[in-house]
Design a protein that fits this description.
The strands form four sheets. Strands 12, 13, 14, 15, 16, 17, 18 and 19 form an eight-stranded antiparallel beta sheet that branches. Strands 1-2-4-3-20 form a five-stranded mixed beta sheet. A five-stranded antiparallel beta sheet has the order 5-6-10-8-9. It is built from 13 helices and 20 strands. The longest helix is centred in the last third of the chain and has 17 residues. Among the domains are: about 110 residues, Uridine Diphospho-n-acetylenolpyruvylglucosamine Reductase, domain 3; about 190 residues, Vanillyl-alcohol Oxidase, Chain A, domain 3 (3-Layer(aba) Sandwich). About 25% of the residues lie in helices and about 25% in strands. The protein is α+β, with helices and mostly antiparallel strands and about 425 residues long. This is FAD/FMN-containing dehydrogenase. Keywords: FAD, Flavoprotein, Oxidoreductase. It comes from Actinomadura mexicana.
Amino acid sequence: MNDLRAAVRGRVLLPGDAGFDAARRPWNLAVEQPVEAVVEAADADDVAALVRYARSAGTAIATQPNGHGATGRTGGAILLRTRNLDGLEIDPAGRRARVGAGVASGRLQAAAAPHGLTGLPGSSPVVSVAGVALGGGLSWFGRAHGWVADSVTAFEVVDAEGRRRRVTADTDPDLFWALRGGGGDIAVVTSLDLALHPAPHLYGGRMLWPAVHAPEVMDAYRQITAAAPDELTVWLDLLHFPGADPMVAVDVTHLGPADEARDLLRPLDRLARPLSDGRATMAVSELGGITAEPTDPGAGRSRAELLTELDDGAVKALLADPIAPLLSVQIRHLQGAFDRPSDSPHGPLVEPYALYMFGIPADPETAEAVQGRQAALADALRISGRKPLTLLNPEETVANAFAPEALTRLRRTKARHDPHNTIRSNFPVNP
């Protein structure tokens, strides 16, 4: 592939080059990611040149801004890094943004905040907006506004023949539908247009208690989420960090005034005094501080499920034993706009809660224990069997996310737009 350097203007790294191993590294260091080369594209024209090269060479391209969601399904492919596609334009009057494929969620939030607007950020400020949207995207504000993908109005892409195109619901309804949450397996997205949402007020933060109070915290959590308006999002976290005692946390955001939020959250104030209470009026650019997720790569093993109910039996299963060797077991309240119609591959999320379990596979024995604890919890709960694409782990496939009819449509769209399988996502639509 030495001729690859002549085909593109961005940096090219090949096996044996200094920095190659670091450049191909995924965000999850527990995932091995074999690639034939790494290309850091200079711009969208450079992406087009790379696709034309790959097509003529019979090679696939796997696109990742920074490696989130990597599954290791990159053997024989060129890894395309899009972090240099970092253009960001905000149209305050039109409540729109044009976001390059390399733009992180936190940067969009920082640009939108001065205008009283927000995108649909998740818990981490370092994931790319484009990557989240291509996977559907669960946001703090999804109960008010649905999937992140539901807010996308247009995609700028390079198709499998190396042509730059603008894709909307009018220009190509099938491709537009597939890109809004189908995983990005059909074209390389170089930027997207999305609607911004009003956020004149935001209240949020984390409350933390010793784990001995988990039953009462869970009761309050169920009481709050049973009557929560769409503007209120509440997550519950069972936590056990190395060297610390087990804890339970409640994370909250409210798109409204502080006094209104405090009234909605009153059941929490009747609990035992917390170890800490970080709730306050905040800017939409500060959301990443609520859960304080790592902003550097690390090894992890996750499993997600969608809960069909959070009844007494589910609570008993969740609280019966310590979560160790897991670090966290998180329950996210869904409903609201999530369970309303969505023209996306996943469609509406009809399950009321999402469960996300995470541990660190420090060694093979610990990895097996983490996986076993996750399986035991999942087996003890009522789950639907489906899960959001962005919460899949590397061993899972698109069949775990999409209904058969949606997967058939995705594969049909893939066959029409990329019959030679030049574009490869973290979760390919074909086996």
